[in-house]
């Protein structure tokens, strides 16, 4: 099984190729405003490092949200273009789930992405990565209130979020994420859509 993983939902490009349960090439790099320019060339470089061509892929896994509106679209566009050309399915996944899967702590896990103005994209998972609180665009204190009756909770983030919990830096375990979804059949590329959770500014102004 040859799998390409793509996550551009933040300022970072997280991508890798897994062949037969082995991570053979990966990139984890912060690009910020250069992400739209750098993402595709860097993903293509992964195939050279892995010694395979895109035509040999069996599956593509892409993070389709939540996070940066622009970033999410970059990853989905790359994944959909490749999958359509190769006639293979895409498995879209939550970036918050990827964060939880990558954390090895035997505790409750609270992946967080800064959404500004004291809001976050967040969720709570148990030690087996089952969702206790669904992915949400939520006021941070409200999410913390929902976690009060849980035992030990760790936060996972790459943002500077002021929170009274133990905080772990997010370092995606691409192999572990891919293996978690190895039995997913995926869906037709045309059915893959962004999951923003937060309304766009235009939608908010229009009262949608």
Describe this structure in words.
Helices cover 30% and strands 32% of the residues. By secondary structure, it is of the alpha/beta class. It folds into 2 domains: 2-94 and 172-200, 2-Layer Sandwich (Nucleotidyltransferase, domain 5), CATH 3.30.420; 96-169, Nucleotidyltransferase, domain 5. It has a 5-stranded mixed beta sheet, with helices on both faces. It has a 5-stranded mixed beta sheet with strand order 8-7-6-9-10.
Element layout with pairings:
Elements (H helix, E strand, L loop, with lengths): L1 E6 L4 E8 L2 E9 L4 H16 L8 E5 L5 H18 L3 E4 L1 H8 L5 E9 L2 E7 L5 E9 H7 L6 E5 L8 E4 L4 H7 L20 H6 L2
Parallel strand pairs: 1-4, 4-5, 6-9, 9-10
Antiparallel strand pairs: 1-2, 2-3, 6-7, 7-8
Helix pairs in contact: 1-2
Question: Quick recap of the structure?
Answer:
By secondary structure, this protein is of the alpha/beta class. The protein has helices at 35-50, 69-86, 95-102, 140-146, 174-180, 201-206, and strands at 2-7, 12-19, 22-30, 59-63, 90-93, 108-116, 119-125, 131-139, 153-157, 166-169. β2 and β3 (22-30) form a beta hairpin.
What fold name stands as the CATH topology of the largest domain? Nucleotidyltransferase, domain 5
Query: Uncertain spans, ≥5 residues at pLDDT below 50?
Result: none
Number of helices: 6
In whole angstroms, the N-to-C terminal distance is 43 Å
Structural domains: how many:
2
The count of strands amounts to 10
């Amino acid at each position: 099984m040859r799998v390409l993983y793509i996550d551009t939902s933040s300022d970072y490009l997280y991508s890798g190729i897994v062949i037969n349960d082995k991570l053979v090439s990966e990139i984890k790099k912060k690009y910020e405003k250069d992400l739209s320019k750098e993402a595709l060339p860097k993903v293509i470089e992964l195939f050279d490092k892995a010694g395979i061509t895109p035509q040999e892929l069996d599956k593509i896994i892409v993070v389709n949200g939540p996070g940066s509106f622009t970033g999410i679209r970059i990853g989905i566009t790359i994944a959909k273009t490749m999958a359509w050309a190769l006639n293979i399915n895409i498995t879209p996944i939550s970036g918050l789930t990827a964060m939880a899967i990558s954390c090895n702590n035997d505790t409750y896990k609270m992946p967080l992405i800064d959404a500004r103005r004291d809001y976050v994209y967040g969720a709570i998972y148990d030690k087996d990565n089952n969702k206790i609180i669904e992915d949400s665009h939520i006021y941070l204190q409200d999410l913390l209130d929902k976690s009060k009756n849980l035992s030990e909770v760790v936060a996972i983030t790459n943002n500077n979020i002021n929170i009274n919990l133990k905080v772990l830096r997010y370092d995606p375990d691409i192999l572990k994420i891919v293996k978690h979804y190895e039995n997913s059949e995926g869906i037709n590329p045309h059915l893959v859509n962004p999951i923003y959770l937060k309304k766009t500014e235009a939608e908010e102004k229009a009262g949608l």
